[in-house]
Design goal:
The protein is mainly alpha-helical. It is built from five helices and no strands. It has helices at residues 3-9, 33-46, 51-59, 71-104, 107-143.
Length: 159
């Protein structure tokens, strides 16, 4: 055995483990400026970190996932989530207010305060309907369609 064969058969005690099927063949391609811009754009869209992996996936028709994150959409849905939690908090406060009014006041005064609470609730319903409409409009703008059919809510407020 010569030195080269000994090196290949003898496992090194330091460093990385040897690969069972190392990629030792290299190929080069030449692109013009327009092709390079298109290639880099597709590479960026793929989200892959290594160009060689991207090229290999393209050649052997492996699936390439493209995930586009839109900061505006993310921000909108984050704010929508906070609105939802605020509405839940309002619902809890609403229940507590009704209980307090029921037990703390006489019937005439309780009816007065409940009527005020009802008007405020109707205003919240109108606001909620506007939020739903804006969300549907936003989904149509972003995705080309709304996920749900529009619901109808009667929002007649009398003051």
């Amino acid at each position: 055995m010569n030195r080269e064969e000994v090196k290949l058969t003898k496992k090194a005690k330091v460093g990385r483990n040897l690969k069972s099927d190392p990629a030792i063949f290299r190929h080069t391609i030449s692109l013009n400026e327009e092709q390079n811009v298109a290639f880099l754009g597709r590479f960026d869209e793929s989200g892959m970190k290594v160009k060689a992996h991207f090229i290999t996936a393209c050649i052997f028709e492996k699936t390439i996932r493209v995930v586009k994150l839109d900061k505006g959409v993310m921000d909108y849905y984050m704010r929508l989530t906070t609105f939802h939690s605020q509405f839940r908090a309002i619902g809890i406060n609403y229940n507590q207010a009704v209980k307090s009014i029921k037990f703390a006041f006489e019937e005439k005064k309780a009816l007065y305060y409940l009527a005020k609470l009802e008007r405020a609730t109707l205003e919240l319903v109108v606001l909620n309907r506007k939020i739903i409409d804006l969300t549907e409009e936003f989904e149509v703008k972003i995705y080309g369609h709304a996920d749900k059919e529009p619901s109808t809510i009667n929002t007649n407020i009398q003051k």
